[in-house]
Write a structure and sequence with these properties.
This protein is of the alpha/beta class and about 260 residues long. The chain contains eight helices and ten strands. The longest helix has 14 residues.
Length: about 260
């Protein structure tokens, strides 16, 4: 769903518009339920003043008002959809500040768990992945790139695996279904080529398939890739990914991928 096609909301390849992620002045039980859902998933406390770092939205109407997005201009169907999403879903903004990834707090089935909705016009080749906000210094000699598949995976990697470490050379990215290759190629176009690449795989992503994919990445070929799995086996199905609290993470030794021709 495209919520706005107005030219004043279009995004550039290099994102310039700053968005206000500050929480509503008055927090309702519904707002707190969304925050507690995220905190429970990864087992950490998220201070309200850090919502911008997580690009986390507790109330879409409050967010739109702060950022001068005219919800009243949307058609009725879109307004009804937005109301339902605001009532039942917690929302994360993608890196390009155009797309909201919404996660249902009360899913009825697996088809009701996720939703994606555009607040700004999609301009094609952009950063439609999730990334923890950080003031990256592009003059750094080496970058630390941490990539997982889902938003909760990378949030847990940041907090529970890396201990919240972040500096001006570090990125934490969830590829959001766009794929590891897409993310690495996007970063390469920004000039981020000399980097230590760390990939935290879901249990169903096998090394041979990942290696075949990454052979098309210049960054992977030049730098190599360290791959990690969560070896914790106490989950209900015997295996878990990284989007869990710290006591459910048993990180593997890294597998270093360097030769992508075989």
């Amino acid at each position: 769903y495209m919520l706005s096609s107005g030219s004043r909301y279009k995004k550039k390849f290099v994102m310039e518009r700053e968005l206000d992620f500050n929480p509503p002045e008055t927090l309702t039980p519904a707002h707190l339920a969304k925050l507690q859902y995220v905190e429970h998933r990864i087992g950490v406390t998220i201070p309200l003043e850090e919502l911008g770092k997580y690009r986390l939205i507790l109330d879409i109407y409050d967010f739109c008002q702060k950022n001068r997005i005219d919800v009243a201009s949307f058609d009725r169907r879109t307004q009804a959809l937005l109301q339902r999403l605001n009532e039942q879903y917690v929302m994360f903004m993608t890196h390009d500040r155009s797309l909201l990834n919404c996660r249902n707090l009360y899913p009825k089935d697996k088809n009701d768990r996720f939703y994606k909705i555009y607040l700004f016009e999609d301009e094609g080749d952009s950063g439609r992945f999730y990334c923890l906000a950080n003031d990256l210094d592009l003059t750094q000699r080496t970058f630390q790139i941490h990539i997982a598949e889902g938003i909760f995976d990378i949030l847990s990697v940041y907090q529970n695996v890396r201990g919240g470490e972040m500096d001006s050379s570090t990125l934490y990215i969830a590829n959001n279904g766009k794929g590891y290759l897409y993310v690495l190629e996007y970063l390469a176009r920004l000039g981020i080529l000399n980097c230590d690449i760390h990939i935290y795989c879901d249990s169903d992503v096998k090394l041979p398939a990942l290696k075949r994919l990454l052979r098309y990445s210049t960054s992977a070929q030049v730098n190599g890739v360290r791959v990690y799995y969560n070896e914790y086996t106490g989950g209900s199905d015997g295996k878990v990914d990284f989007g869990v609290p710290r006591d459910q993470i048993q990180i593997s030794q890294p597998t270093l991928l360097t030769n992508f021709t075989t």
